[in-house]
Write a structure and sequence with these properties.
Largest sheet: none
Subcellular location: Membrane
Number of helices: 22
GO molecular function, one term: transmembrane transporter activity
Order of helices and strands: HHHHHHHHHHHHHHHHHHHHHH
Pfam families: MFS_1 (PF07690)
Protein name: Major facilitator superfamily (MFS) profile domain-containing protein
Helix content: over 70%
Membrane topology: Multi-pass membrane protein
Shape: globular
């Protein structure tokens, strides 16, 4: 208990004011199930809003750096489209672009801004995870969300203030990336505190739909706001994430102890037999103290999954940042899509991501084999990427169908590794029930992946200027490497399952000679 009487967790976390008000209204404490539901909803909305603000750049990118030669071949009749633009306040910005991005090197400058954002995001992730295991996750998450909202809006304010300095937009995106880095370690740690390993893959697969929901909502909002001026494509998502951050501050319980619930769910998970999960399990004595950075790297399975995620996120974030641009600058059925139409069509990739995340989580739960599931998806993504590049330009129908399939296979392993795998390793049995490694392990895995997320869009900015086929070759090679990095884990999982099956075979099924006394 704190000096003011509010319940606190082991780290002194104060019960949120909103929870106290809810308990007063209810006339009693929240139940464990109700608290779990509240945690899922708030963390879902939280990270969906993070991704909504992150997605706006990809929608506005083709407005900042337009290819005016394509205006005569838009999906809608060009005259009607241009008439609509003439009636909008942002006519000049939409048709002429925005300096300094509308010059010959505009595409490369946009790629450098993506790199700066994701580079700071990746570096900040390691520090945020380390900090998250030592401070109140609710406060860390709130600060990150409000800061993200302010600097997302600041990027759009460049339009209102008539700013054309590349370094202004670069600095704003870098600071936004730093605030964004607080999000993922915090939400995964909170969810990991509330849910044990049983069916974690399915639960987190469904929960991880926040990524795609955020991308879809961010795309739709940004595309809808373009007619009012591209600044509003940043300002509206920025305001939304700040409001959700306020809700997090008022209502998010970071662990069961905050609301006075003692739960041994995780302890029961650590005590289960570890025969069939050899690479994600171990034993040692460590409890209550926050786990160090190097110690977290040494947890079996962390390094290979982190490196695998590097290449998975390279592929996923290349689509996140460049898919709308690719769609608006590639003939589909003999026509070019408008910027807003390309943004709307690109959401199908994220719809596929929702399906892929749930499917990968469910399969990994049924098989009890995270590495095998992730590797299978990454290998299957290779032909999907190839077919999307070759046949996606035939028609909108073909493009949509292949994009949906590619989204399933690309985002499936990405979602699985960043959620269930991170939570498994962050509550690893070698930690002996200590949940104060969750944020650190999550940050290591997703931080390493985020370096790949920075590299992919950067390389795309340069390679796409020469050939989009070169970009897809890079993506296919990355998917191949991602799968190969898990090969040792896959072999170990299969071997463990074969050994477990051999041990459980009834004696009558064994050869007679094996039953004879020596």
């Amino acid at each position: 208990m704190g000096s003011s009487g509010e319940p606190r967790s082991k780290m002194g976390t104060i019960k949120p004011l909103g929870i106290q008000l809810l308990e007063c209204v209810r006339g009693g404490p929240l139940s464990f199930r109700s608290s779990q539901a509240l945690v899922l909803v708030l963390t879902f909305l939280s990270y969906a809003s993070y991704h909504a603000t992150r997605k706006t750049t990809s929608i506005v990118k083709s407005v900042l750096d337009p290819k005016t030669a394509n205006l005569g071949m838009l999906h809608w009749p060009s005259q009607q489209y241009l008439q609509d633009l003439q009636g909008a306040a942002n006519n000049t910005a939409l048709t002429g672009g925005w300096a300094p991005f509308n010059g010959d090197g505009g595409t490369a400058l946009l790629g450098e801004i993506d790199l700066a954002f994701l580079g700071v995001y990746a570096i900040g992730m390691f520090f945020a995870g380390h900090l998250g295991d030592r401070v109140d996750l609710r406060i860390l998450l709130t600060v990150g969300m409000v800061g993200t909202g302010l600097f997302t809006t600041a990027f759009g304010a460049g339009y209102w203030l008539n700013i054309h300095s590349f370094y202004y937009f670069l600095a704003v995106q870098m600071i936004a990336g730093l605030f964004q880095s607080t999000g993922w370690p915090s939400v995964v740690a909170v969810v990991g505190n509330w849910f044990g390993k049983s069916k974690r893959g399915l639960i987190m697969g469904i929960w991880n739909a926040h990524t795609s929901v955020g991308n879809i909502s961010g795309s739709l909002i940004a595309a809808a706001m373009l007619k009012f001026g591209w600044s509003w494509s940043f300002a509206v998502p920025g305001a939304m994430i700040a409001l959700v951050g306020l809700a997090v501050f008022l209502f998010l319980p970071v662990d069961p102890e905050v609301i006075g619930i003692e739960d041994d769910r995780h302890v029961r998970d650590y005590e289960k037999n570890d025969t069939d999960v050899p690479l994600l399990e171990g034993r040692s004595d460590s409890r209550d103290e926050a786990v160090g950075f190097i110690q977290a790297w040494r947890i079996p399975g962390v390094a290979p999954f982190a490196l695998c995620l590097f290449f998975c996120k390279l592929v996923a974030y290349t689509f996140l940042y460049w898919l709308p641009f690719y769609l608006s600058h590639t003939e589909i059925g003999g026509e070019y899509l408008s910027d807003s139409a390309a943004g709307v069509l690109s959401t199908l990739f994220d719809v596929g991501g929702v399906v892929g995340g749930i499917l990968a989580g469910h399969i990994s739960d049924r098989l009890d084999a995270r590495a095998l599931t992730a590797a299978s998806f990454t290998f299957c993504a290779i032909p999907a990427l190839f077919f999307y590049r070759i046949y996606g330009s035939i028609s909108l129908t073909w493009n949509a169908a292949l994009m949906l399939l590619t989204g399933v296979l690309v985002n499936g392993p990405y979602a699985l590794i960043t959620t269930a795998v991170s939570a498994d390793l962050g509550t690893h049995s070698s930690l002996n029930g200590n949940s104060r490694a969750l944020a650190t392990v999550t940050a290591i895995i997703d931080g390493t992946g985020s370096i790949g997320a920075a590299v992919g869009p950067l390389l795309t900015g340069y390679i796409s200027a020469r050939s989009w086929s070169g970009v897809f070759t890079m993506l296919m090679v990355s998917a191949l490497i991602a799968g190969l990095l898990l090969s040792r884990l896959v072999v170990a999982e299969i071997s463990a399952k074969m050994e477990a099956r051999r041990r459980t075979e009834p004696a009558s099924d064994l050869p007679v000679s094996s039953l004879e006394e020596p």
